[in-house]
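Following up on my earlier thread - several people asked me to post the actual chain instead of describing it. Fair enough. Here it is, all 566 residues.
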Amino acid sequence: MDAGFTPIDVASMLVQIEATPGIDRLRSCSLQFGEADRRTVAAVLDEAARFCANNLAALNVGADRIGCRLECGRVATPPGFATAWQSYVAAGWPTLDHPTAQGGQGLPLVLSASVQLLVDASCAAFGMLPVLQRSAARLLTAHGDDRMRAEWVPHLVSGEVAASICISEAEAGSDAARIHTTAHANDDGSWAITGEKMWISFGDHDMCPRIAHCVLARSPNGLSLFLVPSELSVENGLTQRNSVFVRRLETKMGLHGSPTCALGFEAATGWLIGAEGRGLAQLFVMITNMRLSAGIQGLGLAAFAADVARDYAAERRQGGPLSAAAVAIDSHADVQCQLLDMGAEVEVLRGLGLAIAVQADIAAHDSDPEVRRAAAALTQWLLPIFKTLGGEAGFEVASAAMQVLGGAGYTRDWPIEQALRDARVATIYEGTTGMQALDLLHRRMWRDRGAGLAAFLAIARADVGQGTTGAAQCLDLLEDAGRWLCELEPTPRAAEAGATAFLHLAGLAATGWIAVRLSGLTADDAATRRLVAAGSHWLSDIALRAALDHARVFGGDAKLRNYATL
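Reply from S.P.:
Thanks for posting it. Predicted structure:
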């Protein structure tokens, strides 16, 4: 076996970032991005790793066991969360990738995403709050008026105030068109928001004094977005509670340190964000951050679980000749295969996530419009893939790690069972796997006429090349399946039946591309050798896995014939 994988090791992360496609182009986009050279990135990641070890990792188990409480109508987070958040804000971690004009550091998203991965690997429940703040800051920057941006964005960037995204209702989850929450204009320019929202992450808590609730509600001209503060400013700098009430805290399988609330809005005072009737369209400004973050959360938990399994296997002794001391279980072939599978999956997915972050920034900041267009198409193509695969990896790698730990992994004495529970939701919120598959089919293949697929095939084939290698076969199978699905646009049900298989086939093609790049690294250091081993292992049977998904794309409609009689 190779020396082993250390998925959240800063040295490996640094090698990955420097090997990310487009990183040099990104650094030429702006002065601040150019300053994020290897030395700066290394310093930031080293400090982030120390912060997470000293401030977050110790909170994780206690937060899971104690959870959040509802006391006198307000949410109390687990002990230590509020203090850790104050330390997080004081150290400037929320500001990394925000513009300097807003009080941010102007660093690239790829660095912020890497720090987020370390946070999620240490305490995923804590890591949900900064994701919401980044999303709300982007929303208000893009669509808020001057007063709203001045009042809220700098404080969201700094982490002094929090945010929640209030979309889902009891009968309107992914089907936002069925939302019943209403908004009526007041004489003073504000709006009265009335309705019930559910599944609201950090809908209330004691970590920040104010929360900016971004609420999707039905106004006279359609679905619109509103900023509904938890606290309203009154005279002399004082505040009073807005008419926003915590109906209950959800009892969840995992992420117990993150409060998930049902909120009631009783003629709560809010202000229109952007144009009335454009709420759904305006939400898309947050899609990159939210989907990337969901994938990173799953990946962070996968990295943590793989790391625990590797360390346990090196220490746990069992088997070998009875005439000698028992051997460490990582000397057994089956355990080595399991550790290789886990480590390789983590590394190729991390490479994919970093690639998306780089392309997202190029799409936003490059001086060449054609480069921006191609990067945007590639980003939107890869986002539902990474969101799904990262989320799946969190649960699957935790489950595989439990196999390595055996009975110990099934107990609360070890953190693997918590990681498995925490990770399960990553393929559910921000759109289930099926919703991501339909997004890839309807938006990226049909509406965009396959522009994202074409952008991906162009960049991937430049690295993979033509021929009979496993990665090249993946690209060919993906292109073939995509061509067939485009022909089915007039009969969408047949295509939709194979959409999830197509999503997974696209995921194999994307991770195969990253694996080829990793397996070709040439530096002779421990971190690089681990990445080379990860890439090579991932490619070892990728053509077989791709062939199965390809067959499932074409066979999806035939399966539906059995549904009526099941």
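The first strand starts at residue 69 and ends at 71. That should answer part of your original question.
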